[in-house]
Amino acid sequence: MAKLLHLSCSPRADSESSAGARVFLDGFRQARPDWDIDVVDLWRERLPEFAGPIVEAKYARMKAQPFNDAQRDSFAEAERMALRFSLADRVLISTPMWNFSIPYKLKQWFDVIVQPGLTFRFDPSLGYLPLLKDRPTTVILASGSDFATGMNRGRIDMATPYLREILRFIGISNVRFVPIGPTTGPQQPIEAARERAHQHLAAMAANF
Ligand SMILES: Cc1cc2nc3c(=O)[nH]c(=O)nc-3n(C[C@H](O)[C@H](O)[C@H](O)COP(=O)(O)O)c2cc1C
């Protein structure tokens, strides 16, 4: 069965990125009622701490050394998470912007799955090569500031370039970003930004 994987990255009940994801998924379900939607809620699922055997496994791989038993066991968790992602035909990421970038849970998720021989490889003559196949991906990014019009009060957006680069590094280049912001401050611009983003997301979902 074809599958959309949704990485849900806000811990808030009133989350703007999650509300955007609901609009997108409602439209997507109507367009593709037979698809499986696999939700990875990063605040509910157990993510391995990237310390101890799992980080040593990464270094063993980079040095082309065999795993010990603990490294193999912990690497299997990374394999399971990367496999769940790699089996998705479409990807939706809904995330807040936190401190110019992404929430630490999403960074932790990338730190676990971005592994040599799993999602990328290194070739001495060709450099770093992605191992995942490309697939349509939508990123909904909610931010207190409005980066579309430049009303960002001196803050910058490092989340968009980071996500574009880390996804490209593992093979996902077909990515469209839908910003939702401002989500803080006066009510009128918040509502206008939400309305604009939701209309855009509903239209995108029909052809995703
Ligand atoms: C810890 C934290 C850091 C934040 N940092 C930024 C920031 O750097 N830039 C920004 O525009 N908004 C920032 N915000 C505001 C959030 O991006 C905004 O509330 C957004 O709507 C959160 O997404 P959510 O509604 O999906 O939870 C921050 C909020 C929190 C809680």
- Give the C-alpha Rg: 18 Å
Write out the CATH superfamily name: Flavodoxin domain
The first-to-last residue Cα distance is: 16 Å
Q: Return residue spans where pLDDT drops below 50 for at least 5 consecutive residues.
A: none
In the CATH classification, which architecture applies? 3-Layer(aba) Sandwich
CATH fold-level assignment: Rossmann fold
Enumerate the strands of the largest sheet in spatial order, edge to edge or round the barrel.
2-1-3-6-7
Helix/strand order: EHEHHEHEEEHEH
Structural class: alpha/beta
The geometry reads as globular
Strand percent estimate: 15-25%
Mean pLDDT: 96
Count of separate DSSP helical elements: 6
| Small molecules in complex | flavin mononucleotide
What is the CATH domain class?
Answer: Alpha Beta
